[in-house]
Specification:
Layout (H helix, E strand, L loop, with lengths): L1 H13 L2 H22 L4 H16 L3 H17 L3 H17 L3 H17 L3 H17 L4 H13 L3
Helix pairs in contact: 1-2, 2-3, 3-4, 4-5, 5-6, 6-7, 7-8
Protein name: MalT-like TPR region domain-containing protein
InterPro entries: TPR-like_helical_dom_sf
């Protein structure tokens, strides 16, 4: 952690926002590793990722920002911070969707669909499930997976 803190200090002086954000993200990953071993408070992880996201915005590193939003969303989910997780995951979803990134877009659309379903927002759930279904069909995903998702969507009765 000490080396990352020193790197952060150097990058602040140089105003290299992308390197600064990379260092904050690495610090967040370090806190995650420590959390598994020492039960350090998860707010350190969340704050490090949020800081990284802000510096990625300043440096216009959109893909790295979206990847960090994805990672932060997963951390927030693991700590039952569902509403905040949805916010970050939705932002990542829109970036990856606009980039036509199949893997992240499908993963996020299905995850957001499940999250909205769990919170009782069936119309939003259906929207994200349908987005995932459309992309899966376009990219030749195995029919069993498509049929399972179609069954889930049909069961929403919207």
């Amino acid at each position: 952690k000490q080396f990352l803190v020193e790197a952060i200090d150097l990058f602040i002086e140089s105003k290299n926002f992308e390197k600064l954000a990379d260092s904050w993200k690495s610090l967040g990953l370090t806190y995650q590793t420590d959390l598994m071993e020492n039960s350090e408070h998860p707010s350190h992880i969340v704050n490090a990722y949020k800081t990284a996201i802000e510096f990625y915005k300043k440096g216009k590193s959109n893909k790295k920002q979206a990847l960090t939003e994805f990672d932060l969303g997963q951390v927030l989910l693991s700590h039952s911070e569902n509403n905040e997780a949805i916010r970050y995951l939705t932002s990542a979803y829109f970036f990856f969707s606009n980039q036509n990134d199949f893997d992240y877009t499908v993963t996020l659309s299905l995850q957001l669909g499940r999250m909205h379903l769990e919170t009782g927002k069936k119309s939003k759930a259906k929207h994200f499930f349908n987005q995932g279904l459309t992309i899966m069909k376009k990219n030749g995903v195995h029919m069993d997976s498509i049929e399972q998702l179609q069954t889930t969507i049909n069961s929403l009765n919207i």
